[in-house]
Recover the amino acids of this structure.
């Protein structure tokens, strides 16, 4: 099974990341520190990523888009 959609709740230091498959099955639900977030997404195949829109979120959108993810 492969993660197709990831929801990311952005915070100041800790991020909650929730990954699901095409059928809606939960594959991961992790808490990541700021330094771990980019490495987590580098290891995922390109997928849809949903995150909130704020100042730091736009920075993350650019980073994740550069890795091939569809960020919304």
């Amino acid at each position: 099974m492969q993660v197709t959609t990831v929801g990311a709740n952005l915070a100041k230091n800790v991020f909650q990341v929730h990954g699901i498959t095409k059928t809606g099955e939960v594959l991961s639900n992790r808490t990541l520190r700021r330094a771990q977030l980019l490495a987590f997404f580098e290891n995922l195949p390109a997928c849809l990523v949903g995150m909130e829109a704020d100042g730091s979120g736009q920075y993350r959108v650019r980073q994740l888009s550069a890795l091939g993810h569809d960020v919304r």
Notes: Residues 5-71 form one domain. The first strand starts at residue 5 and ends at 9. Strands lie at 5-9, 14-20, 26-33, 48-51, 70-71.
